[in-house]
Amino acid sequence: MGNVMSATRPGGGLKTEKMPGHWVLARLGKRVLRPGGRYAIHEMCLADGVGGEVRRALERALTGVVHHGVKPLTVSEWRRLVESEGFEVQATETAPMALLEPARVVGDEGFFRALRFAFNVLRDAEARRRVFEMRRVFRRQREHIAAVAITSARA
User: Fold this and answer.
1) Burial class (CB in 10 A: 0-12, 13-18, 19+), 4
2) What is the spatial distance between Cα 94 and Cα 147, in angstroms, rounded to a whole number?
3) pLDDT confidence band for 12 (50 / 70 / 90)
4) Is pLDDT of 10 > 70?
5) How confident is the model at residue 102 (pLDDT cuts 50, 70, 90)?
6) Tag placement on the chain: N or C end, fewer CB within 10 Å?
């Protein structure tokens, strides 16, 4: 979910929490884009309504395999985050989480880069273990996680 920086969550009062780097980028985008300038994100998300223990368990599972604090937002939370920085959301699309699925890797990277990725994963036992575990988590949690793309314009 991008880099994480310490900042105050929009609407979070004075409480300082770890926020996704895209929040920081949205704030920066607001400063550098002219009115009407476009800003887009494509991120992992949780289905709206996922919360409580399910959300915490998912965060623990993802953090365990990524070795980085992972706190995905719901689709609604991503929209509010973008809107809180002065952007008007123009489109929101979701898709099943297909990260690390072979067809998706080829589609994203092209055949030869996907082949290089596969070669690197096959020759490095630790990388192979982590990639396969991440894919297992994505598959096990497919009803709770997805990808979201949000296109917006600076107001």
Assistant:
1) middle
2) 5
3) very low
4) no
5) very high
6) C
Residue in this structure with the two tokens 């998300």, named with its chain if needed: 45
Report yes or no: 20 and 73 within 8 Å, Cβ to Cβ: yes
Three-state SS at 45: strand
What integer pLDDT is reported at residue 123 of this predicted model? 96
Tokens of 125: 């036992």
Question: Rounded distance, CA 106 to CA 98, Å?
Answer: 11
What is the identity of the amino acid at 66? V
Beta strands in the chain (DSSP E): 4-8, 16-20, 38-46, 73-74, 87-96, 145-154
Task: Write 35-40 long-range contacts (CB < 8 A, 24+).
Answer: 35/154, 35/155, 36/153, 36/154, 37/153, 37/154, 38/151, 38/152, 38/153, 38/154, 39/82, 39/87, 39/151, 39/152, 39/153, 39/154, 40/149, 40/150, 40/151, 40/152
Mean pLDDT value across residues 80-100: 93
Report the distance separating Cα 25 and Cα 133, nearest Å: 29
